[in-house]
Amino acid sequence: MKFKRRNLVALADLVVGNVGRDDAETEDEAKYFPYRSSSRITEFFQDLDTEYRHDGSTRREWVADVLDDILAQPHEGPSHPPELFCRLIDQLMSPADRLNEGPDRPRALALLNAVLEREGFHAFYAEDNHCYLRHMGTQSVTVLAANPHRPFSKAEQERRKLLAAYLDSCSEDDLIEKILLPMFRQLGYHRITAAGHKDKSLEYGKDVWMRYTLPTQHVLYFGLQAKKGKLDASGVTKAGNANMAEIHNQALMMLAHEIFDPEVNRRVLVDHAFIVAGGEITKSARNWLGNALDASKRSQIMFLDRDDILNLYVVSTLPLPDEAQPSSPPNPWLKTDEPPF
């Protein structure tokens, strides 16, 4: 996506707060965006979880270059700007940053739309007090949601590689506790309870159970069976892999056994089962399970393999586990061969 340079500069003026005057005598001349110095500009982009740091050059031109770089990131089409640009607009229009007007910021919104509408977009506040972008041609609204199928930015691709390396070395318990539990919490599941592996007699085929509340306030219960390695359907399973027939039996146990929900003080059955693999779920394993299930239970069992975990975790903007964090490069100015003072 490409904006005209004059529109990038005009938008950068709003980000750095060059528009309006503090000593204005009329509303048309008043300031509606806070002034941001070099350090404040850096904080603005840090709050967006980016690596942009102001280099001391002209603030407006530097921000315009950054906006041009952000708009060049992968996105879903001409009517949907990159997610980072949408988050930037939402942060720019935060009601907490209002000046000389109410929390709905009508004058700031008018200044912003004077720029965006020249590029075919319109900004507006929704009922949740967040600012969204609507494409004026298609009327489609870009919603900030965890979409695992969208193109990844370069930084997200690096995080995905680090997480993939962590999945190669972590244990099954680490997969559940450090990856799956935070990810499902971020995706909106609640009352997430891990059975653990210390007392397998109490698992009844499930490692985790959780529930999800629909917009209609109906509650669905989910069980989760996780395996670290690959799931296959071969007659002789290799070391580190798991056989789909065994997972099938555990899924049936999961669906047949009741769980106790202390919030409603009653026992309930699991509605759906997740089969999660830290490795690949082979096509033959999926086909075998599809043939083994009758029509009534086929919709109750869902799959998440390695790629699904990586994509969902990355788009959920969760921090990587400590073991997956990149190691800091050595400091060239620190001489470790000299004795301390």
TrEMBL record:
<feature type="region of interest" description="Disordered">
    <location>
        <begin position="321"/>
        <end position="341"/>
    </location>
</feature>
<protein>
    <submittedName>
        <fullName>Uncharacterized protein</fullName>
    </submittedName>
</protein>
